[in-house]
Specification:
Layout (H helix, E strand, L loop, with lengths): L2 H8 L3 E2 L5 E7 L3 E2 L12 E2 L2 E6 L9 E2 L4 E4 L6 E6 L5 E6 L10 E4 L4 E2 L1
Length: 117
């Protein structure tokens, strides 16, 4: 078994709809009632969730829009380039990784309302 398959198996990851593999590791017990949310939300929302997410070099995360902020953390492997388009249409790209001297960062916040891949 290669290292990639070992990680997927050990962390019990499943295919993610936008590409890669994932597993939800936390979902808060508390929820925000849908009556208190903007109309684009369907149903109640957890206060917070957390997932593992893994992309292989042969895959990509398709552009998708998120309603809530997402915080990405880098743990291991090759750096990843994230492309973001803000609600106002501004394009930016960010590299999350561990080569700090070249500008890579180990964490990135993707604001709610953004399109990103």
């Amino acid at each position: 078994m290669n290292a990639l398959n070992e990680i997927i198996e050990e962390l019990d990851l499943a295919p993610h709809p936008e590409g890669g593999f994932f597993r939800e590791t936390y979902r808060s017990a508390g929820e925000i009632n849908s009556d208190s949310l903007e109309p684009e939300y369907s149903g109640n929302r957890a206060y917070s969730t957390c997932i593992y997410f893994l992309l292989t070099s042969a895959e990509f995360s398709a552009f998708h829009r998120i309603l809530q902020d997402e915080i990405w953390h880098f743990y291991d492997g090759s750096a990843i380039r994230l492309h973001m388009i803000s609600e106002s249409g501004e394009y930016t790209q960010h590299i999350i990784g561990r080569n700090f001297s070249s500008g890579e960062k180990p964490q990135l916040v993707v604001p709610g309302g953004s399109w990103f891949a």
